[in-house]
Amino acid sequence: MFAEHWFYHFIIYMYALSLLFAFSDLMQPNRQGRRLALLFLVAVWLCQTAFFIWKASLGAIPVLTGYDSLMFYSWALVTVTLVIDWLYEMHIFVFAANLMGFAISAVNLFIPPHAGEEIASPLLSELVFIHVVMAFIAYAFFTLATVFSILYLIGNHLLKRKKWNQTLRRFPSLGRLEAFSYRLTMIAVPLLMLAIILGLIWANQKVGGSFWFDPKIIGSFVVLVVYSVYLYKRSVGGWNGCQLAWWSVISFLMILANYMISNAGLSFHRWL
Asked: Do residues 255 and 248 lie in contact, with contact meaning Cβ atoms separated by under 8 Å?
């Protein structure tokens, strides 16, 4: 347990160094700082991957407790961030995504490493494992879509005020930011839908018909609906870029509220 706690702190330090070098590059562009930020972020990904491999080698499923599930969420964020940066080299996005991922990792420090294992153990099954993995991958995509939306709102604000500074010059075009937010949401919505379907099948087998009144399940449907509204409005062209960006941010706040519900003792999902 001590070694696991120390290892997680080491990951946090790597994350912090990546964030610091990314911020340095943002303030004063330099190739070396950018490379170091990427290097430490890759180190974070490797450490997190090694953590999951180690947990699996012990016969544990590393996503079914509150501590490990947030670690997996962070791993998914880092993975998608690295892929996007490798394909498109959006350095300011890497900094913003790093900031979000670091905040999530820091929150995880306040969760006991083995919290929820007593509850998670009897609930373990392949179905619930796939359900949890798909849900957290969907949440990771939603998170990064929100990052793009926030960058869109900041870039739009700076453009309207005609603040032509170095930071604004490093922003991708507003159209590109909005397009990436839409694409990530378009991937996340069907993933969340499949996760909910699998969760309902499992809940019907293990909990019974009363699961329909569970606040977390109701909240998950609300999240699915609000993001579906986003996709619909984006497809039919009913909203402009700012309206879509704000709706994306509000929808992500719904995810946060839903996660808090699952850990407030109001739902059988509190073991996640």
From this structure: no
